[in-house]
Write a structure and sequence with these properties.
By secondary structure, the chain is an alpha/beta fold. Helix content is 50%, strand content 10%. It is elongated. This is BTB domain-containing protein.
């Protein structure tokens, strides 16, 4: 996943959006999505967790005064505000709030995709363990039917690079479903649709599931992108 981060313009900074504060005294404000949702963070914590952010931090002009009064802003117009907010809270060590523990599968998938985009899945390991627990992955398919919402958790496991959860969810599908797995791609677009169809194909033609299936799929995805 590519990333295009630019400094917010003065006009964007003048817009008064909703704000959230993973770091109330942070030295950087992320301006996220078309609504320009503001998320205040510590640049050092973010860059330590994400090499993608680390490579972009030089675009902002930091100063001690800016920490308290008017921090620089990084514009992320293509990212999802809710997912970025959740990701930043977790990266800053705030843990999962009661609300975050109950987010729906489609938002978990969005957070996972964002973590993959910014190469910070390791920082979200504990959250992924909770969202993708064995008990939850067992509910992806039941009574021969793929759950229309919880199927997103298999894609989330892929983007989180969570081998155990991916294997558990895949095994559940193989056990419960005896025909096409293409429904994994229903309602998806872009990279999620491509990956979902690739996973569906691999599951259909893989008689014996191994813990390395997710790695194999990711390697094939990289090869396709390189070509």
């Amino acid at each position: 996943m590519s990333s295009d981060i630019t400094l917010a313009t003065e006009d964007e900074a003048a817009f008064e959006p909703t704000r959230t504060t993973p770091a109330p005294t942070g030295d950087l404000i992320l301006v996220v999505g078309p609504s320009r949702y503001e998320i205040r963070v510590y640049a050092l914590i973010l860059s330590n967790a994400s090499p993608i952010f680390a490579s972009k931090m030089s675009k902002a002009d930091y100063s001690e005064d800016a920490v308290v009064s008017d921090p620089p802003r990084l514009s992320l117009p293509d990212d999802d505000p809710k997912a970025m907010d959740i990701m930043c809270h977790i990266i800053h060590g705030n843990g999962l709030s009661a609300e975050m523990r109950e987010i729906p599968p489609n938002l978990i998938l969005t957070v996972a995709g964002l973590a993959a985009k910014y190469d910070c899945t390791l920082a979200l390991t504990a959250a992924a363990e909770y969202w993708l627990s064995p008990e939850i992955m067992d509910t992806i398919a039941q009574s021969g039917v793929v759950h229309p919402e919880k199927k997103d958790l298999l894609l989330a496991a892929y983007w989180f690079r969570h081998g155990r959860a991916f294997e558990a969810g895949s095994l559940r599908l193989i056990t419960e479903i005896s025909w096409s797995f293409s429904s994994l791609a229903d309602g998806k677009s872009g990279e999620d649709e491509i990956v979902a169809l690739r996973i569906a194909s691999e599951l259909f033609f893989t008689p014996i599931l191994t813990p390395y299936l997710v790695q194999d799929i990711q390697e094939k995805s990289v090869n396709v992108e390189i070509k």
